[in-house]
Every structure is written in structure tokens, then in C-alpha cells.
Input
Amino acid sequence: MATLFISDLHLCVERPRITELFLEFLANNAAHADALYILGDLFEAWVGDDAIEDPENARIVGAIRRLTTAGVPVYFVHGNRDFLVGEAFAGATGCTLLPEESRIRLYQEDVLIMHGDSLCTRDSTHQAWRAQVLDPAWQQKFLSQNIAARMAIATDLRQQSDRMKRDKSMEIMDVEPATVTHVMQRHQVRTLIHGHTHRPGQHEFDIDGHTARRIVLGDWYEQGSVLTCTADSRRLETLAL
Ligand code: MN
Output
């Protein structure tokens, strides 16, 4: 038995093979898991839960529903692309929405799970954008528009973000070490699992004289990426297309 962590699938019609890989992953790898944690950016864009009615999204929602119906708990932490995933999505899939910083019991250890973009505090333009889109007034105004208008705004925001990223160094877009230490101290954990940066790896460092670990999940652009945890092992693996 294992607990699985994934993030940054960025599912969209432009990458149909990734959607197929995810559906296979749900039907096979995840079918006998203790739990599946999706740590954000499952979707390239999510403009509101009425997007469930889109046929492609309905397939994905249905596949997660089959997994939860079969008894595998699925947990979802919002990413910066799918921050509007809401209770209707949770109801349709049977998944549980978790806060951005969630401390969970992973076999013998309490670990912290996050999407990760809130850790990139050197990236001030991203943090300003994040503050804007997480503002309830902004969300209410956005959601009051029809779905076509929302999709157009989302495309525009993504293009803006891509243009800004071109001028940013990798260092600015990575997590800020002091922010990582601070959040781990606050939650009293020695292991943090997150995604967002698309820089998969396992990092060891020191917090208050103890060895701390940060495990970064990979994106699903060219392959799948999954962290498989058992009571005595943690393996970061890729899934071939
Ligand atoms: Mn992200």
C-alpha cells in the first residue's frame, strides 16, 4: 500500500496524451493506493466549477469519481492555475479540498503539503497577482461573467504571466529558503512536499539542528511524475508517455 502525490499536470486539450496518461494512472497506479494527493495545477486553467460540463473535464471528473467511489481517498490542494476549483468539483469527484498549507499524517511522520507558489516570495509580481486572484471580491466579479468571457480573461492572464516569466531568472521563480524554513517551523514538520516550480528533486537542509527535507514534485509536460510513499520508502518517479 502506498500514498501517492502528484501536481502540475496542467491538463488541457493541447496535450491529449497527458490526459490519457493521467486517466491510466488513476485506473492503474492509484486504484489500490491508501490515498492520492493532488497538489495543485491539475488543470492548465479552471475558470469555475461550471467547467465540469465541458466534455473533456467531465471525463477527468468521472475518472476521479470512479477512484473515490472505489474507496481511495483523493485530496486536492489548489494551484495557481486552478485556484477556482470549488465545492461543486469536490462534490462531483468525491475529493476533499485542503487548505494551501496542510499538515497530514504520512505513516510515521507529520508532513506539510502545499502547491508551492506561496513559497516563491522573491517573485513579487507573482505574489501581487496571487493576492489579486485570491481576493474574494475579484473572484466574485470574475465568476459573475459568462464562461466564454472568463476563458478569454484566463488566456490573457496566462499570456501575461508567460511574458513576465521570460524576464525572470530561475532563482526568482524558485522557492525562497527562509520562507520554506519559516513555514516548516510554524507547522512543526521536518518534511515538506510541494510542486509548482517544475524542478523535481529531494533537498536536505538544516532546521534548528535537525535534518529537514523538501520533496518537489515534477510537472506532466513530457511525462508523468509521481511521489510514491510507503511506510518505509519515498520514491519520486516518472511515468513514460
Ligand atoms: Mn503552479
